[in-house]
Amino acid sequence: MKKIFLSLIFSFLAGIxxxxxxxxxxxxxxxxVGAGVGLARWLGIDDSISGLWIGGLMVSVITWTLDWFNKKxxxxxxxxxxxxxxxxxxxxxxxxxxxxAGHPFNKLWGIDKILxxxxxxxxxxxxGGLWYSYLKKRNNNQAYFPFQKIxxxxxxxxxxxxxxxxxxx
Length: 169
Hints:
Elements: H1 2-18, H2 27-43, H3 47-71, H4 79-97, E1 107-108, E2 111-112, H5 113-138, H6 148-168
Antiparallel strand pairs: 1-2
Helix pairs in contact: 2-3, 3-4, 3-5, 3-6, 5-6
């Protein structure tokens, strides 16, 4: 199970690192994701669902940072790799040190619930943003409906939240 989990992590990181340019998410997405994390913890919602929103927030912050590097013309070797790994280490290491993540009774499918949620949330938030970019390009660089850039990545997290709610209930 650990080999499968590690291969999923490396596949996810390879996917993020292979995106050719930084697709920065809008500030409303970051606020929505941040509010989702706070609300989930306050309401006592399962850690896997909180992890989904934390993962979406991480993708937002990473893409914003990479976009900021591009705008400021800051280039250094392995910039994308260092940024991605750095943010995930900054997020996950303290959670393990304080005992929020890594508890033996807080697992789903043999994987820590927070870590599982972060991975799944990151992947689907990124896919929602990439899907929006793809659809926008197909429509002469026009969104199909107002706030589509927000609805697609955040909508993916909302749908996953309902799915994980029923799985963990």
